[in-house]
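Retro notes
What went well: the complex prediction finally ran end to end.
Inputs used:
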Amino acid sequence: MSQTDIYTLAGAALFVIGLYGLITRPHLIHKILALNIMSGGVFLVFVGIARRVMSPDPDPLPHAMVLTGIVVTVSSTAYALALAKRIYSETGMAALDAPDVIEEPEASSG
Amino acid sequence: MAEALLAHMPALAVVVPLVAAPIAFLAGARWGRPVALVASALSVPVAFALAWLVSAEGEKLRYQIGGWEAPLGIGLVVDGLSATMLLVTAVVGFAVTVYSLGYFADKERYRFFWALWLFLLASMAALFLSADVFNLYVCLELVSVSAVALVGLSGQRDALVAAMRYMLAAILGSIFYLLGVALLYGAFGVLDLAHLAAVLGPDVTGQAAFALITVGLVLKTALFPAHFWLPPAHANAPSPVSAVLSALVVKGSFYILLRLWTDVGDPSYVPGMGTLLGVLGAMAIVWGSVQALLQERLKMLVAYSTVAQIGYLFLLFPLVEIAGSHVVDAWSAGVFHAVSHALAKSAMFLAAGAVLSRFGHDRIDGLGGLSRRAPVTTMAFGLSGITMMGLPPSGGFVVKWLYITAAIESGAWWWAIVVLAGGLLAAGYVARVVVPGFAKARDDASDLDVDAGRLPRRMEFAALALALAALALGVLGQPVLDLMAVGSPASGVIPWTGQ
């Protein structure tokens, strides 16, 4: 197994782990982190692809795309976190299905 | 001078709203409004100029930002499809801006609307002009972030939760898309759409990339069964935002699917994909329409109607694959639907928003006798309903005619049945509002406050103008059909007949 394969497979694994977390975890912060893990996986795939050219130097273009991707991810994560915080302060819950949960007695006091 | 200006039209389409956005932000609650009005008004002649340039040239125009050649610089490409989408964005955008001036009467609370709205317009324009798959990714994210912010603008609980759900779906879609881009680059080593079209060959990695990109974009376009985020987001957003989300934003991700499956590759590139997208589209038409029939609130009805109408867009893919000599009909039907639905659905949401803001509620069973209380708005709703149903002489009729022609001629008559059934269902949910609306209201069927103040005229007439435009497309549609065919698969250079 070449170095490229290791990176690409690790990236794919992170992608799947993140997707699993996004679907199964109700907490908004968990969901946002899960999306970050997925993005990290995609970036690793890019890094693996950059090494596929048969020259001593890696292809710089995937690196440029990863950098742009990181900027995009940081910004959208910041925004998603701000939104989650606002939802928490409005509803007292950090989950999407807040209305249902709020009817439970222990949640209605907070 | 004039020629120099014309040469920079592609850049101007993005630059005008992009420069105006931070100015509107800095200008504050009061002066952000005229800034947005001027910028969105300017976008209309820019879009017309681009459409004229493309038609005159008869082929794709390429533009290098700052004169930097690819791969260093970022290129923009304008063809008939881009010009059509830019044009409809500019026209709907302007009407929505005019409406918003009346809708956001509380200037202070919605002071951030104008900047976000201009950012959304700029990112939509950039998306329709992007020449490569990675820039498309960046534009998709820009569109999503500004759209999500607009959904949550009211700060109310339902709107915030809807915005969050939308945000998670949108980011997930983008990540799938980006993984697809990585695999495409790994397989073929290019990002430019035209280069990709030239080197695309049968390759497992390439097929996986196409599949991943499609999953991501289907999620962003809210195609059944990935539509779960759309109704709450579109119904809880402020009404001008609902209009833009349903009319334009979902078309952004559809546009990329169209580029990939009809420009770069063709639906047979991944076996079964065309049929799968078409079946999901058919299910969306039925499911969305039935849900629209069951809703109690007008804005939810209109939002589910969007779920149904998105389905029509996806009938393009199976029909393009099998239509043979009628491939142009199938392709044109899908694109024309994107245009006519954009006009009609924005009109419908603006009308629903006018009802909601005037009478304080949008419960459908309380809207009896609406036409006497709000004749212009009821008219706008009814006329846009004609396009949803696909009755002549509307733009929706042209769409159905082209689809049915393509389906019958290629022997795949069952797609024609879907198209016709969707029209009947649409008639059902439009009638739920229009029939009691025009009836002499019984007391128990009307809950319209007699003392409700009049709406600003510009709100009612912005909706009516869009509805009339959707209707006029049926009669005056030929120039639009000609425009969108420039430099496209439908112009005769059909990749899938050469393979």
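What we learned: Chain A touches chain B at residues 15, 19, 22, 28, 31-32, 35, 38-39, 41-42, 45-46, 49, 52, 61-62, 65, 68-69, 72, 75-76, 79-80, 83-84, 86-87, 90-91, 96, 98-99 (CB under 8 Å).
What to try next: split runs per interface for comparison.
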